[in-house]
Amino acid sequence: MKIGMPALVEYNTLNELVELCLKLKLDFIELNMNLPYNFIENIEPEELIKIKNDTNIEFTMHMPDDADLGTFYDSVRKGYVELFSNTIDWAEESGVKLLNMHIIEGTKMTLPDKKVYIYEQYSEEFQNNFVNSISELSKKALKSGVKLAIENSSNFGKPYIQKALDKSILYPNVKLTWDTGHDAVSGFTDKQYLMMHENEIAHMHLHDAIGKKDHQVLFEGELNIAELLSFAEQKKIRALVEVKTAEALERSIKALREKSL
User: Cβ(92)–Cβ(139) under 8 Å?
Assistant: First the structure.
């Protein structure tokens, strides 16, 4: 099983990430397109190929959190599809085999007695937009040998999200990411859907949680980290230790190795 680390907001260069990855003896780095220093236009494919050849460090890519493939605004949706398409091209040249992405639950309106999710109220339009985007990107991903992995963000329990996912994972190279902390925040409703489609899980974001606080240091929260690692090992998927500071990452990896002895 390969263990990796995320790009960190406290850093500003790829070299800093690589140095920490080497120090912690990890297998891969998940770059993150929420961070300008990880934008595809700022990282030449040849640079990642050289790092891989020199160090054996591999890379995945986290797409922007706000990239909404189901948006009702056609021009905006086409812009996001173009961004994904360009990233697939970049990934193929860079040797990156997986792009992690979110499915956006959309705007909600707070009424006196409840909250209404607009994508749920217009579920058919949302599903059509999202699935049409995925259909187009799947063709390119298959040709390029890149997987698109849709991450739970405490929203896989919503029926309108599930309907869009059910249709999306039928397409080639479209898989799921199990984010363990987001799952905990959802009250483990994300897990219910994920376990119904466990053979489609291609990636894991591993972090601990205390109540509704996720991205906690491994083994310092309430989750059964050993059980989650066992699942990743059984499925032969990468596990990204998704804590967000170098200090928390070092503590997590130290604890992980001590517990594995």
Answer: no
Chain segment 19-77, per-residue pLDDT in tens: 999 999 999 999 999 999 999 999 999 999 999 999 999 999 999 999 999 999 999 99
Name 228's Cβ contacts closer than 8 Å, sequence gap at least 6.
180, 204, 206, 239
Q: How far apart are CA 31 and CA 27, in angstroms?
A: 13
Tokens (6 digits) for 199: 């053979």
- Spatial separation of the C-alpha atoms in residues 115 and 134, rounded to whole Å: 28
DSSP for 78-139, written as a single string = HHHHHHHHHHHHHHHHHT--EEEEE-----EEE-SS-EEEHHHHTHHHHHHHHHHHHHHHHH
What's this model's pTM, rounded to 2 decimal places?
0.96
Whether residue 13 contacts residue 39, with contact meaning beta carbons closer than 8 Å, is answered with: no
